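User: Could you walk me through two proteins back to back? I'd like the raw sequence and the structure tokens for each, with a short line separating them so I can tell where one ends and the next begins.

Assistant: Of course. Protein one, sequence then structure:
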Amino acid sequence: MEGIGMTARVSAFARSQHARSRDCVYCDPLAEKLLTQQEMQEIASSMTQGIGFFCPGFQGTPEEGLRWIVEHQLAPSPLGRAAFAESALEQSGAQQYLILAAGLDSFGLRQPGWARGMEIFEVDLPGPSADKQRRIEAARLTAPENLHFLAADLADPTAMDALRTHPAFDGEKRSFCSPLGIVYYLKQQDFSALLRQLAKVLPAGSRVAMDYPARDPSAQFDRQSALAKGAGEAMQAAYTRQEMEELLQSVGFRVEKDLNPAEITETYFAPYNERNPDHPIYAAENVNYCLAERI
């Protein structure tokens, strides 16, 4: 079975590099532990060699090139969306947390005090889920008792059955769901089907936090698309705010918040940029963050 995909590994790499910063937009000290040293070296080498694609005419050392790529290309999306989701999760009052296509997300392993009363479910394909658990063991980390791993294919119309029948899951309790980084790779009909599945298992008042590609891609989005395609995970669709709102409404959700890149930068990156004016980080272009409530 296949293990953790390249996109998830690159995301963890970006989080690990940023965690070394003096100040963090979002700090994930366990990201590096979930990657092997060989993976870290291979990703760093690949990105450094590609500096000419990301920044034509770049002049600097390989180390400076890698920092530029991390700050301008790799880190903005995983840092911003994680900060957005976890901030909304803390304020939600949810008793259960569903992390879809969890990849190398480490929240369940480093959960803050306010999350320890939750039941946390990581839903991923069988191969990646098993790989994640092997990596946790290899890193000598201990999965808390409230962290549960569910193997399921989100493209399968019965995927949520694994959650619905899990002894720790309660369909009556308010939940929070974060399908971060996956809307890009779903065709619209598949994304709609996934939302309908969630609507069936999430009671009223539950919330979903996600990032999604906004319509009218720019050169920045084209580079992101090329990076994903190179990893064998081509992007599939993009939405306007109105299209996303209408889609969510059609399956039983109400948009509570929808942030564009300028709003994301102001909310989550501005404090870091004020402290690090020589190395600012800005939200990825043409990517919005959406928080929706189950009605």
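----
Protein two, same layout:
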Amino acid sequence: MSLLEAQHITKIYDGRTVIEDINIHLEEGELVCLLGVSGAGKTTLFNVLSGLTVPEQGQVTLAGEDITGKPGKVSYMLQKDLLLPYKKIIDNVSLPLVIRGMKRKEARARALPHFEEFGLTGTEYQYPSQLSGGMRQRAALFRTWLASDGVALLDEPFSALDTITKNAIHKWYLDVMERIHLSTLFITHDIDEAILISDRIYIIGGKPGRITDEVPIPVPKPRPDDFYLTEEFLNYKRDLIGRLGLP
């Protein structure tokens, strides 16, 4: 049984089929990327997986439980960090617990021991404006983890970061995933990013969007710093470019 599984998902908006007959799965401990051009339906699929929208056809299961149309079962982080500027970081990251009914003091106590794991020691009582872009993304990921049951959906969370910061946060995130036993489904437009961090890559394309390919990347993680310079990396990139139909 897969940890998270979507079977035969079809979603229609305003009479237009956006995604059709999507089948994907996520195993425990995996990081799986969903790679495709803009407009292929990646975010629509995430909205279904997170329970924010109900598909016209298909089912989403989490550890065998039907969670179709049931929000709050898996956590979902959008491209922007969406930290509340008037709340301290400790209250931003623990907000999902408060929304679920936990007292503020208890939610803070639950979050506090994990600041070191997320590389945020010393930021607990600062405001978002006092943090760098990379630190804000760490805080958003921390909040996502606190809201999760071991599964995180990330929609291009690192796209706004510069290359050096992005490379550092990739390594950090893979390490955190292993330490806190988190499984991740990750949307990206960045072929290099997909190759560097994925266990598997689903390619989505067409109108309506469909899964056209599944590409395993059986290279141990974390990958070497110079992996992107190797012939193996370049072969994966050539293959993905071809599968995506890019020039």
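The mean pLDDT is 89.

Let me know if you want the two compared in more detail.
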